[in-house]
């Protein structure tokens, strides 16, 4: 079996590395020193470079001006983005575009995908419900009213909502069905309240009070929201992996130069063992990530497994949440007091790691989900 990435996927990585090469993680004020958001906007200049490099249209089909690549390619790009703490809605935007492409009708795809591929239209998604713990679709009620739908409810911690053009809002119909509504940010009845992430980014609590959505802008295909949620979780794992890899590299470089008793501290057994343990964490995060991304792509083609793809996503998120936490904690420990210096970027990576650890549920949430899947699908 050949486990290497395709030429197209490798080309996406090289393009991403070129775009992110000049990005510094300290372009904005430190989240440790900023009581509010570190910036009002995401990095529009970087966004334009991603668009010019065709990375925003990477996962779109050729008829929509894209390269027709898959979730694995997206995760490869996200991995590079996290290494420099790129402040762009790359995951939310591309994942939502993939959902619209796969399940949206002609009117919706025509309205969103050309602009999404060029970067002119920015998409995001509300994925955390009211509390961040309950299923997001249960936080909003969608009622059919002739040719339109009416949305009532609230979603919290919506990333990039203040700057996005469209927000994908999961909802329930009251009959146990999950739907996905695409709502313009400037819509009557939609209000945004300020929230801030652990990493200092600007979030929004959105309230939907009688928001009316044309039927053509609502996706009711079975499994559409579930697949989007799994893609978001898998992309979060890719971000955690890229961040963790860069943090371990920073730690290796620091401990190789920092001397005690006339020797680099990296040569001390206690330091080397801790670094080796974190390397093992990263490799486990990597293998479970690619398994989850492959299952997401394979499931759209009908390929199955002993568990639904949600099982692979749960395993990947468990490793990502636990692994990235251990990596940054060990890095802080091995850096000593230098790791707490706000002029040094390590504390920024620590803040982002905590955000990624909890995003879309910490490890315990996914362990419970995996247990439910194992109980429902006993393995022979």
Annotate the secondary structure layout.
Layout: H1 7-20, H2 44-52, H3 71-83, H4 90-103, H5 106-118, E1 123-125, E2 140-145, E3 148-159, E4 166-172, E5 178-184, E6 190-196, E7 202-214, E8 218-219, H6 224-257, E9 259-260, E10 263-264, H7 269-300, H8 309-335, H9 346-358, H10 363-376
Parallel strand pairs: 1-4
Antiparallel strand pairs: 2-3, 3-7, 4-5, 5-8, 6-7, 9-10
N-to-C order of helices and strands: HHHHHEEEEEEEEHEEHHHH
Judged by helices, strands and strand pairing, the structural class is alpha+beta
Tally of helical segments? 10
Record the strand order, biggest sheet: 1-4-5-8
Whole-number average pLDDT?
95
Main beta sheet strand tally, sense and closure: 4 strands, mixed
- Count of DSSP strands: 10
Low-pLDDT residue intervals, each spanning 5 or more residues: none
Note the gap between the termini. Answer: 24 Å
Radius of gyration: 21 Å
Helix content: 40-55%
**Broad shape:** globular
Strand content range: 15-25%
